[in-house]
Amino acid sequence: MSLKATVRQVNSVTVVDMSGRITLGEGCSQMRELIRGELAKGNRNLLLNLGDVTYIDSSGIGELVSAFTAVSNQGGSLKLLNLTKKVHDLLQITKLYTVFDVHDDEAKAIASFHKD
Amino acid sequence: MGPQPRMGPTASVIELTLESSLKHMEMVEEIARRVSKTAGFGSEEEFQIELAVHETVINAIAHGNHEDPEKTVWLQFKILDDRLEIHVRDQGKGFDLSKVPDPLAEENLLNISGRGMFLIRQFMDEMRVISNCGAGTEVIMTKRRKPQAEPHQGGKDRESEGHRKTS
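^ inputs. structure came back:
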C-alpha cells in the first residue's frame, strides 16, 4: 500500500492524516506533491498526522525534512502528530526529533500554532 | 521477471535475483522479516533487519543499477549458527563510501538524502562494502544471533567497514 492522505482544515491549521508508506518512489512523490499543493493554496500551517504511517525509510525521512524546509521557507510551520514508535525511533537516531515540533495530542498541537 | 525465492540445500540460505525495479520492495521486506523471525530475532530486531535490507536493496536498484531493466540485484540471506549474514550485490559502477557525508553533522542535519547507509550501520552489527569500479557494489551485513535472555546491545560500536576501489 502506498501513501494515502486526507486533508482537513481545523481553524487556520491544515491537518493531513497520512497512512501507508512514505518510501522512495510513489510514497515520497505523493507527499511532495501534497505539500507543494497546500503551500500553493496558501496553507502554511501544516500538521502531519503520521499515526497510521506503517513504514518510512531514509527517503521518507528526507521527504519530511524537505517538507519542513519548504514550509519554513514560506514563513509557515510544519509540525508532526502521533508518531509511531518506529518513526519516533528513526527521528531520534537521525537527530531530527528535536528539529521537528512533535505532538501526541491534536488539540494541543493545533493550539501550539497560535502561540508561535 | 520478479523475485524467485530459492531455498539452499540446508534451508539456511535464501537467494533472490531481483529486477531493478522498486515494485517488489514490499515482498523483499516480507522475506527479510520472515528470515529474521526464522533466525530467532525479536520484533524490534526484525524491523531493524528489514529496514537495513530495504535501504541496501533500494540503494542497489536506484543508485547502483539506476533502475536499468537490463541489470539485476542479487540478494542472499545466510542463517549461520552465530549470525544472520546478508549479501546485496548490484551491477552498477561502484561507489566510494567515504564520500557519503555524516548525516548527524550539524551542517547536514537538514539534508534531504544521505541517511540510508547510516541507518544500516546503526541497525546491523557489521557492514562491509566491496565496491570495484565497473564491477558493481556488494554490501555484506551481519546481525549476531543472541540467546533470548541477552538484551540487544546495538551494533554501531562493532561496525567494521571494508572498502576497496580499483580502477
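The mean pLDDT of chain A is 95. Chain A touches chain B through 21 residues (CB under 8 Å).
thumbs up if we can close this ticket
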